[in-house]
Amino acid sequence: MSSNSFAYNEQSGGGEATELGQEATSTISPSGAFGLFSSDLKKNEDLKQMLESNKDSAKLDAMKRIVGMIAKGKNASELFPAVVKNVASKNIEIKKLVYVYLVRYAEEQQDLALLSISTFQRALKDPNQLIRASALRVLSSIRVPIIVPIMMLAIKEAAADLSPYVRKNAAHAIQKLYSLDPEQKEMLIEVIEKLLKDKSILVAGSVVMAFEEVCPDRIDLIHKNYRKLCNLLVDVEEWGQVVIIHMLTRYARTQFVSPWREDDGLEDNEKSFYDSDDEQKEKTDKRKKPYTMDPDHRLLIRNTKPLLQSRNAAVVMAVAQLYWHISPKSEAGIISKSLVRLLRSNREVQYIVLQNIATMSIQRKGMFEPYLKSFYVRSTDPTMIKTLKLEILTNLANEANISTLLREFQTYVKSQDKQFAAATIQTIGRCATNISEVTDTCLSGLVCLLSNRDEIVVAESVVVIKKLLQMQPAQHGEIIKHMAKLLDSITVPVARASILWLIGENCERVPKIAPDVLRKMAKSFTSEDDLVKLQILNLGAKLYLTNSKQTKLLTQYILNLGKYDQNYDIRDRTRFIRQLIVPNEKSGALSKYAKKIFLAQKPAPLLESPFKDRDHFQLGTLSHTLNAKAAGYLELSNWPEVAPDPSVRNVEVIDLAKEWTPAGKAKNENPTKKFYSESEEEEDSSDSSSDSGSESGSESGEEDEEGDSSEDSSEDSSSEPESESGHQSDTENRRAAKRNSKTKGKGDSKDGKKENEKSKTSDSSNAESSSVEESSSDSESESESESESESRKVTKEKEKKAKQDRNRLATDASLLDLDDFNPVSTPVALPTPALSPSLIADLEGLNLSTSSSVISVSTPVFVPMKTHVLLHRMSGKGLAAHYSFPRQPCIFGDKMVSVQITLNNTTDKKIENIHIREKKLPIGMQMHVFNPIESLEPEGSITVSMGIDFCDSTQTASFQLCTKDDCFSVNIQPPVGELLLPVAMSEKDFKKEQGMLTGMNETSATIITAPQNFPPSVILQKVINVANAGVVPSGQDNIHRSSSKSLERPDASVS
């Protein structure tokens, strides 16, 4: 042990010597006790000499060491006079370091800094942008009111500087000047308005921060810059992103109507899918104005989505709160995965994230239920993290997962962290209160904890049991007796007081035990805690009123003890009780009602989450963390009933391109081609203006006019690459396209026509697929006849438009731009092309020499009777559901798997309005739900059909099976064998197909069995039982073949 400590001392001593050697050139003076102090003095003297040297190298070395001292947290303020002399140095490196030093100490040494103010003013004109910016920083750091006019002038000049770095520092200086002199607010707002129009990503975050500090209520300054800020958001530095997102959240709450009405609209549409045409018309007439999301609202939500993948936890948290506060409830679920990812960060980040998740999980449990295991407590977690995770687990508890959680809680109760163990017991109590099915289980478990060795666990269990017994006291007389016996061993005051309160409330149910408990308490009255004394007095009063024969003298004795107690609360309570229960001449009218007062029925306590009232604070803010309004907190306003005028966000564009357009060109244009001619004008205007905000404004305005076009509803899919691409690259593509279209001859127009038709067909199919993802079953409600007629119109329009002398690239570019800002509306089915892309591909692949396809679907050889539990009758409160795979072609779609669901009512009451909602499907997966069932009689059963497109995978399809009163989360996971269709083919064709599957798509395995145990019929039966395959005739007895094909890829077979 001694050798180790000696080595450590040697090491630390060596490190100290090195540090002294770096910072001081002189040797330590020989004087013993004052050697260290004298070396410090020598060190600073040495630095002063180096700063006064004629050599730039010495000055530079000195400044590097001084800045190093500041970085280590050492005080270098006494060097200020020596450093400030070098502020006018011609060496740029020295000057930059001097400015770094002055920014740190200018506020402390104001008088000396003022001496060099003329130098700072000259530096504002320096050709080096870093010097100009540093001079402004130093100037704004001198907190003296006398130089406010100089600072104001410097900020105005810097705001117009060519360097974005200098403009960024001007935005920082605005906040410093405003805190120094708030009277300059109006002039500073003018500078902020100018800087908000800046196109640089360096400036955006800083000027929004200045806006939030100086004039957060001036929303009118944001209108014209809203779209630009949304588009720049991805490229702004991280802390700028946080500030901008918080500001735009507040902006959206004042300028757009609530999107939370959208969900109701979607549910109504989903129900009306099954109605007749007349009923659907009536409903449509009633709902003439459905919710339509403003395109600017959608722009903000779409452009912040990529930031959920940011490496900065603050950015992810900011986007999460934006989605929580302004996005439709159906889209807010995407933030849960990103927030759970942040739980891998350090404990400080975890604490803030968990606090916000705790608030979210109260209102929307479904968001975090899939990630339940991420909130399990680890042994290495600090207590604050453990407590928050417990809170979230309690919020997420339901009938389906409570058994798993209670097993988890049993482990937590045994934790060495006593505070955490006590919090776990409180959590068990809350779960017992919220979920009536497990109340008795939790109560019996808590009673078992009463025999625990740890006093804190026992005390907390007593307190929780007391609250649970208040809900149904008549049923638990034995528990009260058991707790009365614990009074001799429990010493924690709260627990003792709880037991006494319980006995007092139930004194008539335990008439033999209550008087004896009072007798014991009277003996120890003087040594008890004040909390326990108050409950002893209450117990005595209640027994005096119910059993005065046995307890009259005991109560009088206790009242006499309380009369002379040191605590005035106990003395007051004693006088009050004596006057109330002991009748005498002075007793008032209240004495008649003493029994009603003391033995009144008390309401059961409501165990609520401590995070219940935090939702009125904006998530991710300091106020939310503290649960109190912090200084500078800006409240989120309520959604407006009617949206303000959206045209205020439109930016005027001067269309200079018209001057360069030949006059004859407009005459040759067909007036019916307005859609494309407007987009061309849009391209011309974007060439003359580099402001992406103005570009987006004109485009969104154009889309409002063209709202009936078939392209509008394709905007909903936020995962399209076009929607997340930058506007600058779009502008370059359009310019290149225009150059190509001018140089291209008429001879190329025919080829261009074919390519155009092909590209438009693919665009239409892409739009159709995105619409299907967004609108689920709504898109399927369109009739086939309507889609065919509309598709013919689209094809004719494309043929007309292809005759124009346009380059294909230009057309694509304009379509991309239109797709960027389409308004979100209620889901509308897109007109399908006359030939689907897959059919076109098949037709192109046909060859005269090819024989007919060997893959032909046959009827299933065997249909297994096995059913899977979808909803257990205990979890479904009497509603049971099972599902099976009938192996029949799905009537809802050729790529869907047919699923039969059998619903049983095991209760003695009628279950009404059984339907499906809140589908949580992976990307690409689709579901066709069954028609809502009006009612299911007691002991009744009904079988319904659904179609699910599992996208050729075994991913789980999660959704909610709902009745009139309840909703239950359920999921369906298909076996691999049910994703196939049986195929009939000859042995020759089988071998041919099998040869095409070799390589990466081939899987083989060998199973050795005894022939007598597994005859050929049994082997075939086993195969077709697990897979929906067809049997292929075989010429050999020892070889068995079966074949099937994939639902998702009809051309692929499985042998």
UniProtKB/TrEMBL annotation:
InterPro entries registered for this protein in UniProt: AP3_beta (IPR026740), AP3B1/2_C (IPR056314), AP3B1_Ser (IPR029394), AP3B_C (IPR029390), AP_beta (IPR026739), ARM-like (IPR011989), ARM-type_fold (IPR016024), Clathrin/coatomer_adapt-like_N (IPR002553)
Alphabetical list of SMART domains matching this protein: AP3B1_C (SM01355)
Domain of life: Eukaryota
Gene Ontology BP annotations: intracellular protein transport; vesicle-mediated transport
Keyword Metal-binding included in the entry's annotation: no
Comp. bias regions, Polar residues: 1-11
Subcellular location as annotated: Cytoplasmic vesicle, Clathrin-coated vesicle membrane; Golgi apparatus
Principal location class: membrane
PANTHER family: ADAPTOR COMPLEX SUBUNIT BETA FAMILY MEMBER
Family to which the UniProt record says this protein belongs: Belongs to the adaptor complexes large subunit family.
Function statement: Subunit of non-clathrin- and clathrin-associated adaptor protein complex 3 (AP-3) that plays a role in protein sorting in the late-Golgi/trans-Golgi network (TGN) and/or endosomes. The AP complexes mediate both the recruitment of clathrin to membranes and the recognition of sorting signals within the cytosolic tails of transmembrane cargo molecules. AP-3 appears to be involved in the sorting of a subset of transmembrane proteins targeted to lysosomes and lysosome-related organelles.
The protein's name: AP-3 complex subunit beta
Encoding gene per record: AP3B1
